[in-house]
């Protein structure tokens, strides 16, 4: 049986970027009986932005509710909370000794974040983030890790760490494969198309949140920046329109060319109105399910976490015990 590992970090409210780049396929993928699919909430990863404890707790539960709302709800798919499986932290320390600073220095996500606030002041946790991610994957002998474009480099590093460890100690870890869906791999901010739509952004005006109501979605899309001219088309000189057309194309299941032809001569206004409609229509049933789960006193969320914790602990503890024995650890 194929094992697949996916995570959704509780660092803020989930965005349309998370949905289009990753989560929209998770319900369907998890229904495949030939796959054992692990969906975890990397709440230890979230500490790298030092969230308010109450917010972290709420965002973590909300991530579980979104997973359930997306249809991740099967006997052979497991949702769990990273901090409830201590093997993740323990294997990270071990793998720190199989990873070089040169490798971590090359991680573009760290470089981007370090650029914003300076490398010297960065937390060690942020620097070490890719090693914790390697532990998240290697503990489960994952065959596949579906990620957005931005996380691909981290999975490549995981492969290098696993291969290095295996070369020294035998065939211990399965070397995972990143799978990046071609469409929607990088959805950009509606106010700044040079920047990825990110849930940890403090300014939400350029992010469509999965919880946004109709009025907010219409407002954010109508205020989305556009490129010069008035023709609805993609192109290197049209990053804003390219982003909006990408979102529309995925949600409508139509090619960009079809959309360009449909909006020829119509201008940005009509295009934005239709885009807002389709975003609202797509999110409405998911939001209904999500709000139901969040208002149920957490029963379904707790049940899902217990089911997931049991299977995740079983596999992770066995892998960690194997590694410790090989290394002469007690
Ligand atoms: N803008 C995006 N476009 C396409 N895919 C995206 N993903 C995130 N943003 C976009 C994909 O969503 C999955 C879950 O992401 P994550 O929460 O684990 O981490 P992230 O990539 O760091 O997401 P954010 O929203 O940008 O969070 P912050 O602001 O905390 O850094 C991943 O598969 C990711 O590629």
Distance between the termini: 31 Å
How many domains? The number is: 2
Biggest sheet descriptor? 3 strands, parallel
Query: Largest sheet, order of strands side by side?
Result: 1-2-3
Tell me, briefly, the overall form.
globular
The quaternary organization reads as single chain
Strand-pairing-aware structural class: mainly alpha
Order of helices and strands: EHHEHHEHHHHEHEHHHHH
Unreliable spans: none
- Per the CATH scheme, the topology name of the largest domain is Rossmann fold
Assign a percent range to the helix content: 40-55%
CATH superfamily of the largest domain: HUPs
How many E strands? 5
| Radius of gyration (Å) | 21 Å
How would you describe what is shown here?
The protein starts with a strand and ends with a helix. It has 14 helices and five strands. The chain has a three-stranded parallel beta sheet. The chain has a two-stranded parallel ribbon with strand order 4-5. The chain has two domains: 2-184 and 298-327, HUPs (Rossmann fold), CATH 3.40.50; 214-293, Orthogonal Bundle (Tyrosyl-Transfer RNA Synthetase). With 330 residues, the chain is mainly alpha-helical. Helix 9 (152-169) links the parallel strand 4 and strand 5. Adenosine-5'-tetraphosphate (AQP) binds next to helix 1. The site of adenosine-5'-tetraphosphate has 23 residues, from helix 1.
Topology:
Elements: E1 2-7, H1 16-21, H2 26-30, E2 35-41, H3 43-46, H4 53-69, E3 77-81, H5 87-96, H6 101-105, H7 108-117, H8 124-138, E4 144-146, H9 152-169, E5 177-179, H10 214-222, H11 239-252, H12 256-262, H13 267-294, H14 299-327
Parallel strand pairs: 1-2, 2-3, 4-5
Helix pairs in contact: 4-13, 4-14, 5-8, 5-14, 8-9, 10-13, 11-13
The chain binds adenosine-5'-tetraphosphate (AQP).
């Amino acid at each position: 049986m194929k094992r697949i590992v996916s995570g959704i970090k509780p660092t803020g409210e989930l965005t349309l970027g998370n949905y289009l780049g990753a989560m929209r396929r998770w319900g369907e993928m998890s229904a495949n009986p030939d796959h054992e699919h692990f969906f975890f909430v990397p709440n230890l990863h979230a500490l790298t932005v030092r969230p308010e404890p109450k917010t972290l707790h709420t965002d973590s539960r909300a991530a579980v509710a979104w997973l359930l709302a997306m249809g991740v709800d099967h006997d052979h798919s497991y949702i769990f909370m990273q901090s409830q499986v201590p093997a993740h932290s323990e294997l990270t320390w071990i793998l720190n000794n199989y990873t070089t600073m040169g490798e971590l220095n090359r991680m573009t996500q760290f470089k981007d974040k370090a650029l914003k606030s300076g490398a010297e002041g960065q937390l060690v946790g942020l620097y070490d983030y890719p090693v914790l991610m390697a532990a998240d994957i290697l503990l489960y002998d994952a065959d596949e890790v579906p990620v957005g474009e931005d996380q691909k480099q981290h999975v490549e590093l995981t492969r290098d760490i696993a291969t290095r460890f295996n070369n020294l100690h035998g065939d211990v870890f399965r070397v995972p494969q990143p799978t990046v869906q071609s469409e929607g791999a990088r959805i950009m901010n509606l106010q700044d198309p040079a920047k990825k739509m990110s849930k940890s952004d403090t300014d939400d005006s350029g992010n469509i949140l999965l919880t946004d109501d109709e009025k907010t979605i219409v407002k954010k899309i109508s205020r989305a920046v556009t490129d010069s001219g008035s023709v609805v088309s993609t192109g290197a000189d049209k990053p804003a329109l390219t982003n909006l057309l990408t979102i529309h194309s995925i949600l409508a299941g139509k090619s960009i060319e079809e959309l360009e032809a449909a909006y020829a001569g119509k201008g940005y206004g009509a295009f934005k109105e239709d885009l807002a409609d389709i975003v609202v229509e797509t999110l409405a049933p998911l939001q209904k399910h999500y709000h139901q789960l969040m208002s149920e006193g957490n029963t379904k969320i707790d049940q899902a976490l217990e089911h997931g914790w049991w299977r995740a602990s079983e596999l992770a503890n066995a892998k960690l015990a194997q590694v410790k024995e090989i290394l002469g650890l007690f």
